[in-house]
Amino acid sequence: MGFEQLAQLRDQLRAEKQQAKPEAKPERAMRPKQKSAPQAKPRDLDPAVAAIWPLQKHFPLAFPVNPAPKVPLKEGILKDAEQHLELLGITSEQLKLGISTWCRGNRYWASMVENAPRLDLNGQAVGTVTAAQALHAKQQASRQRSQDRRNRMKSKTSTPAPVADTAVEPAKD
Question: What's the pTM?
Answer without folding.
Answer: 0.63
